[in-house]
DNA sequence: TATGAATGAGTATTCATTCAT
DNA sequence: AATGAATGAATACTCATTCAT
């Protein structure tokens, strides 16, 4: 019992350190942010941080890892569905956009992998490639299943990812645009140009509805 | 004459410093890059750099300024034209994309304004807002002149700018995609969804509109 | 009874700490060795060490003290005998050599008194002087009782002590030379040059003396 | 010209740093000595030291290297001679003893190789083995050429080296014993017990003299 | 008695910047 | 215009020690 609660307390403090650190790193940039200030904001001393992390770099990496885990989660969920390529892409865009509006999500694009150790840097770069591949895969799937019209998957993925990543730079929590609104709008607009034209003159209702679901934004 | 040539030689050296610096800053990041290494690559000594610049920060700012000047130039040129909003936007996208594929262009989005002095930081942020306004202005103009269909200028500008800025992160000079090809493709794809249906044969309203909205721009 | 057993258990643990510490200090050097590692090797935690010792320095001092006690013991024993100076010296060399082959013995010469508090440092230095005095005393006694031939006690003591102390640096428990063998050999060789010519056949004075001085001791 | 003098000034300052450092390291021990104090004694600032050395460890290594170089030098000189084993050994003892009375010489035995980087530590350990081998070699040579009577070269070398190394711990420059006196006495005493007994009853003068030169200490 | 957590003091190192030459 | 040398400010990290539980 004391062990479990100890452990929980410890994990909570660790999380608190990460939350504080990610905010500070985003605010001031990794290099300008000092562990002293992280500690000050937590009302502890600098060496206390070393109870939870081995180095500043490890903190940076953990921040990134949390954001990446969230991405991995929703990608796994989307992969598990049997939606067509266009729908998968749309779901990815929405989820990614929402993630970009969080601290940990933004850290995915605003932290510099070169600040990490070689080992961790490799992990990060591999994960980034993985995300890129997912975008391209959904686009390719969509072209294969007819939900997306022919295009260059690589460059299209870059365009979409660029728009999304940019959110991590301009989004402000208290601003006039909510994360959900942005995510919805991005999901709609970034994919509307890709939707294959519905087969003309389809009288039936249900299929039409489906079309709307798939290409409804136009 | 000797004065002029002196001055020219000086300017050339200054430019050489900037070219070396911008490359190094992009390669390693501003904080990891040392003036020592800049000097080494130029086969001069570190204090020699101070003949041309007052500080490391000034070098950073000058790199940014060169990229910004290029942007200002082509924006001025586009502004001076009497193209409609859509065409202006397309021209902006193309020019901006090409610029992103250069070192100085990439520095616009890969350098962190917080590394600058307060004064210079303000200049940079103002310029960034100016670019954003330009995107929105062209979109608004397009909506006004009928070349662009109704949309939210702010978010649309963010999407386009994000795609473009991202180029500065992934473009590699020797890669399979040339800057021109990328610029062409981006100018096409990033605006096709925005183009208002051409004025011809306006009779068939509703159905046509539907179709066009989906794939009409291409 | 429970009090006594408590106390005994405590002392045993204290000893275990010292045994572990002296090994680690010898292995890695006092400064590189951390109390954390001492604790780890004992499967306890660092603060637990403070139940037995007030500081790292006290541990160091206690290690030294154990080694010194052993030296004091055999010196007392030799002092109590009525051997002549040469024999006393030989016994001292043997005992000292054997002691040098133990962890606590080696700590006498491999630990740096300057790592101790001023108070303890003085104790250590006094003890070292005491050992030195003992060597000189035996030599002087030997010269007085005719068992040792004339020499400079001070420098002779330094030579012998140096050879002996060096054992603490090169001796390895599992090596080809056993502590006993080393001690025996050292006791023999380090004193053979000092032995006065045996009293027999004193007739042939000059030439004999000459010869003996050279190789006479063996 | 300015280049040469610059270089010389630089080397002199480097040497001054080493002289100050070796003294301080000997006085206080490597770990207790701070670069700050080294700098203070030189009336410069700590970072200025980094103009001459890359790290504290490098300073330590350089101190050792100077002492080692002196040893290498006189070993090379002795090796080059055609003296018999006993004479070589005696010359080695004398030179080594004198070296031990210098700061750099003492640093050979009072600095801990474990404070060095793995690379430098290996160099040091190799050099130490080399010295040991030299002692044993001279002893073996002496036994082969008849100047040294049979003994165990390994243990004999340890005894002699121990006496010599100990000088580095107790010698004090201003003390009553001069380095030369010590070296002379050590050369005599540490080898007298090893000299092979001259062939008995040698009438002839010259050979006898020779004997004296070789084994004269007995 | 033992522990997890926290602390404070201390140190090597880096690097932009300046200065005398 | 250029350089070698020097500086000062700043920061991550270590570890013995303490304290509340």
Describe this structure in words.
Chains A, B, C, D: One of its GO terms (molecular function) is DNA-binding transcription factor activity. Chains A, B, C, D: This is TetR/AcrR family transcriptional regulator. The structure is a homotetramer of 218-residue chains. With 218 residues, chain A is mainly α. The first copy, chain A, has two domains: 53 residues, Orthogonal Bundle (Arc Repressor Mutant, subunit A); 148 residues, Tetracycline Repressor, domain 2, CATH 1.10.357. Chain A contains ten helices and no strands. In chain A, helix 1 packs across helix 4 and helix 6 packs across helix 8. Chains A and B meet through helix 8 and helix 9 of A and helix 8, helix 9 and helix 10 of B. Chain A binds a DNA duplex (21 and 21 nucleotides) through helix 1 and helix 3.
């Amino acid at each position: 019992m004391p062990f479990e609660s100890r452990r929980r307390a410890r994990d909570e403090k660790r999380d608190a350190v990460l939350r504080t650190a990610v905010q500070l790193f985003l605010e001031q940039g990794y290099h300008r942010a000092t562990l002293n200030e992280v500690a000050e904001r937590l009302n502890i001393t600098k060496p206390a941080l070393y109870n939870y992390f081995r180095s500043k770099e490890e903190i940076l990496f953990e921040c990134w890892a949390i954001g990446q885990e969230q991405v991995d989660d929703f990608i796994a969920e989307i992969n598990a569905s049997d939606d067509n390529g266009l729908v998968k892409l749309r779901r990815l865009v929405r989820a990614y956009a929402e993630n970009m509006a969080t601290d940990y999500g933004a850290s995915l694009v605003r932290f510099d992998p070169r600040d990490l150790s070689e080992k961790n840097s490799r992990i990060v770069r591999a994960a980034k490639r993985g995300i890129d591949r997912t975008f391209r895969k959904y686009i390719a799937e969509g072209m294969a299943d007819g939900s997306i019209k022919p295009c260059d998957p690589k460059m299209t993925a870059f365009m979409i990812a660029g728009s999304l990543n940019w959110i991590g730079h301009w989004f402000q929590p208290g601003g006039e645009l909510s994360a959900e609104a942005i995510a919805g709008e991005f999901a709609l607009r970034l994919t509307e140009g890709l939707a294959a034209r519905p087969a003309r003159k389809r009288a039936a209702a249900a299929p039409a509805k489906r079309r709307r679901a798939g290409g409804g934004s136009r």
